[in-house]
Amino acid sequence: MTTERIRIALQKSGRLAEDSIGLLKSCGLHVARSKDQLFCRIKELPIDVLLVRDDDIPNFVDSGICELGIVGDNVFSEMKCAADNFSATVVERLGFSQCRLAIAVPDNGAVQKISDLAGATIATSYPHLLQDFLKRQNITAKTLVMMGSVEVAPRLKIADAICDIVASGATLAANNLRELTTVLQSQALLVRGARTFSPDKENIIRRLLARMRGALTAEDSKYVMLHADADKLPEIVKLLPGSESPTILPLRGHDDKFAVHAVCRESVFWETMEQLQAAGASAILVLPIEKMMA
Ligand code: PRT
Ligand code: ZN
Q1: CA distances in angstroms from 112 to 26, 39, 43, 145, 177, listed in the order given
Q2: What mean pLDDT is predicted for residues 262-291?
Q3: For residue range 54-83, what is the model confidence (pLDDT) as tens digits?
Q4: Average pLDDT for residues 158-170, to the nearest whole number?
Q5: Which end of the chain is more exposed for a tag (fewer CB within 10 A), N or C?
Q6: Atom of ligand 1 at shortest distance to CA of 12?
Q7: Is there a common fold for 6-96+188-218 and 221-288?
């Protein structure tokens, strides 16, 4: 009997590529690829990887060429907004490749507030998300579609504003532009086709999703160990971020001193450690967690 395999579309190279393959790796799946390879077989689970441009991923998933894909919300939502019969859906928000689609204007230009956009020309690679946003604001503006170098449009006097991806804001600053408003907060998404696949394929998807959730939770979680006197325990336990029920063990040779072990499902910052220490904790250890399954 041959087991069915599923296909997942990932970006071949670019800002999503490394983290997408890294996420599969943290799920125990190794994508061995040579430079020009577009198709890789994963040994550990019946999954094949298709390496493509990110812009192709929503359509590949929607049309059933691939069951799953990892793509930026900005690209996925633009495609969804553009097509009437687009039915691919979001399975999980993956947390990496965070950025925002924002409208930006020249520092001293004619547009200073959102209402000034009425009648303006806005350069963008995201015409559908932009028009959808403007409609919700009751603003009519012209769109100039540009597939690259959008940030130079105001300087060339071909647009009054831009609607583009911003991450650190350095590109805007270098072009004397300032952010007026956010159209979409974006991050990498795991997406799938809308139809139900065969039980075999749905089972592979379920297994992959459970591993991904485990890997993503583990990434944010830490295992904290510390020592504390009995009377300090209530306050210390309250300070442990995102920890449900810590294990409390008596320390050998001490009547009223205990070891506390806890899984903290939120970041543990230096500030938290300082607070724990101030509350009476000692020998504080914070360890990374590699894998997690509920
Ligand atoms: O070749 P392919 O078509 O696959 O890739 P691409 O060139 O279209 O996309 P790529 O690899 O640049 O980005 C892939 C995805 O990463 C995007 O769709 C976003 O979801 C996400 N992402 C995260 C970003 C950025 N950060 C980002 N900074 N995408 C683009 N940028 C660009 C932006 O267009 C602007 O020019 O970086 C500039 C702004 O960055 P800051 O840091 O100066 O603000
Ligand atoms: Zn692209």
Answers
A1: 45, 48, 55, 22, 11
A2: 92
A3: 999 999 999 999 999 999 999 999 999 999
A4: 98
A5: N
A6: 4
A7: no
Residue nearest to atom 7 of ligand 1 (CA): 14
- Ligand 1 site, residue 54, Cβ cutoff 6 A: yes
- Do 139 and 197 touch, CB atoms closer than 8 A? no
Please report how many Cα atoms fall inside a 13 Å half-sphere around the Cα of residue 86, on the Cβ side. Answer: 17
Q: How far is the CA of 209 from the centre of ligand 1 (A)?
A: 25
| Ligand 1 atom closest to residue 171's alpha carbon, by position in its atom list | 43
Pocket test for ligand 1, best of 15, 126, 177 (most atoms within 8 A of CB): 15
Answer yes or no: is pLDDT of 35 > 80.
no
Question: How sure is the predictor about 265, in pLDDT bands with cuts at 50, 70 and 90?
Answer: confident
The answer, yes or no, to whether any atom of ligand 1 lies below 6 A from the CB of 78, is no
Structural domain boundaries in the chain: 6-96+188-218, 99-186, 221-288
Tell me: the pLDDT tens digits for 124-137?
Answer: 999 999 999 999 99
**Closest CA to ligand 1's atom 3:** 53
Q: Is 168 in the pocket of ligand 1 (CB under 6 A)?
A: yes
Q: How far is the CA of 13 from the centre of ligand 2 (A)?
A: 10
Q: Which DSSP symbol is given to 116?
A: G
3-state secondary structure of 58: helix
CATH 3.40.190.10, domain 99-186, yes or no: yes
Q: What is the mean pLDDT of the chain?
A: 95
CATH code for the domain defined by 6-96+188-218: 3.40.190.10
Q: Which residues pair with 260 in a beta bridge?
A: 226, 248
In CATH, the number for domain 221-288 is 3.30.70.120
Sheet containing 257-264: which strands, arranged edge to edge?
247-250, 257-264, 222-229, 282-288
Take atom 21 of ligand 1 and give the residue whose Cα is closest.
97
